[in-house]
Amino acid sequence: MRLTMRERKSLTNQVAPRYRGASGEEKKRMLDEFVSNTGYNRKYAITLLNGWGKKTTVIVNGKPVTFKGGNVKRRKGGGRKPVYGPETIEALSRIWLFFGSRCAKILVSLIRDQMSHLEAHPDFGVTEPVKEQLLRISSATIDRRLRERRKELQLLPKRTYTKRGPMIKSQVPVRVHWPMEDRLAGFFEADTVHHCSDSTAGQYCLTLTLVDVGSGWVHLHALLNKARSWMLKGLQGVHETLPFPLRGIDSDSGGEFINHWIVDWAVENDIYFTRGRSCHKNDNCFVEQKNDACVRQYVGYARYETQAECDALAALYEVLCPLLNYFIPTAKLISKEGHGAKIKKVYEQPTKTPYQRLLTDPSLSDEIKAKLTETYRSLNPIELQQRVNEALNTLDVAYSKKLQQKESRRIS
User: Fold this and answer.
1) Triad 79, 7, 148: Cα angle to 5°
2) For position 201, what pLDDT does the model report?
3) Binning pLDDT at 50, 70 and 90, where does residue 169 land?
4) Taking a C-beta distance cutoff of 8 angstroms, is the pair 206, 193 a contact?
5) What is the rounded CA–CA span in Å between residue 269 and residue 113?
6) Phi and psi for 387 in degrees, rounded to 5?
7) Distance between CA atoms of 105 and 107, rounded to whole angstroms?
8) What CATH number is given for 167-411 in this structure?
9) Which stretches within 21-78 are classed as H helix?
């Protein structure tokens, strides 16, 4: 095990004086041991030991300057001055927290696209100098300056409670990937997020997640329990409220999707219904990613089981979906190449929102695109995020009230 840098410097302090006064054979033996302990290159070690602690005076601009070899402490306040001042980092931190601790690449695009809304909101403290710096700050700098605050926001590991569907799944076609010609607006992947904490016993709420494969458009729907009637009602609601046609749904092999009610409903509404393979989560990779980014990162892993909690989830998703679809940029996969056991994936920069991708989709009519644009112009991302925060507070209150009632019943 090699020494740390502090231990190396301490060792050099001890070895250097003895090394310079030793004979040739002793130097060789000491050098072998020193290189073995520190891992230094042999020639570098010789130079280091010979010069450690020595003083050298040279003339710089007509003035004598003394240099000393060894462990010189860096003076306080030295080094390059930070480019972005505390006011900029404070404003950046407020924006980052306000919009749900987005990743740096998404946050950069969001700030540049929505600066007119950000500077109009007094709570962010976006003055003219701060605005200039925020418009040129890089994602790497954001990651570095917000690293410590990001460490404070850690969630529990992922869980899955999917149970396979009945034998009707043999009648549902299997889809294992999405060719480019199928990535048109209206083809969705579907999944459910179980809000059951560590136990699947009893009734608990679920979130129905649907993701448009081509654009990344997200639809979230709160379900009171796993009953098929709630799932069917949720899918019907998507079909009726979606601003563009619902053409296909691809789900996993869970029983909440693979049943006669859902299959018959898809046939009646001319919706192409497919499923992924059992125990192959990557068959539904688009929606699996959104389960974490759009659900877990907001509501966590607590157990929600009451009507009040389900209503709070529904109120949250009512304002969260427009925020995600119209204002939050997403990254899309450009290419994927296999090199033996390794797979290289290349993603585009997250500069486009799902709404912007829909505007470039050739399968949508101009009338649909005009309605999308009209909706976009009527929304304000700051107001939406404020309503999201209020809805999260309402969910927390409902959850706390439920725990208090349980504790009261236990005591009584």
Assistant:
1) 50
2) 84
3) low
4) yes
5) 38
6) -70, -35
7) 5
8) 3.30.420.10
9) 24-38, 42-51
Six token digits for residue 133: 């710096």
Tokens of 403: 């725990």
Predicted local distance difference test score (pLDDT) of residue 168: 61
pLDDT 10s digits, 11-24: 888 898 889 889 98
C-beta of residue 191 within 8 angstroms of C-beta of residue 299: no
Helix, coil or strand: residue 257: coil
Nearest to 102 by CA among 350, 326, 318: 350
**φ and ψ of 26, to 5 deg:** -65, -40
Where do we find the tokens 């993603």? 347
Identify the H or E element spanning 78. none
Lowest mean pLDDT among 52-56, 104-108, 153-157, 216-220: 153-157
CA distances from 357 to 107, 116, 176, 217, 361 (A): 18, 22, 24, 9, 7
Taking only the tens place, the pLDDT of each residue in 244-272 is 999 888 888 777 787 888 888 888 999 88
Chain centroid to CA 10: how far?
42
Q: What is the mean pLDDT of the chain?
A: 85
Task: End-to-end CA distance of the chain: give it in Å, rounded.
Answer: 60
363: three-class secondary structure by DSSP: coil
Quickly tell me which residue has 């709160």 as its tokens.
222
Which pLDDT does position 167 carry in this prediction?
A: 47
Q: Which of 190, 224, 218, 232 shows the shortest CA–CA distance to 325?
A: 218
The residues spanned by each domain of the chain are: 5-55, 86-151, 167-411
Q: Which amino acid is at 224?
A: L
Q: ∠ at Cα 340 (334, 344), nearest 5°?
A: 20
Rounded to two decimals, the pTM is: 0.72
pLDDT of residue 186: 86
Instruction: Provide φ and ψ at 304, rounded to 5°.
Output: -115, 125
Res. 231: pLDDT tops 90? no
Distance from CA of residue 328 to its chain's centroid? Answer: 12
Cβ contacts of residue 319 below 8 Å, gap of 6+? 384, 387, 388, 391
Nearest residue to 191 (alpha-carbon basis) of 276, 272, 259? 276
Tell me: pLDDT of 39 over 60. Answer: yes
How far, in Å, CA of 45 to CA of 34, rounded?
8
Integer CA distances (angstroms), 332 to 9, 293, 335, 357, 391, in order: 48, 15, 9, 10, 29
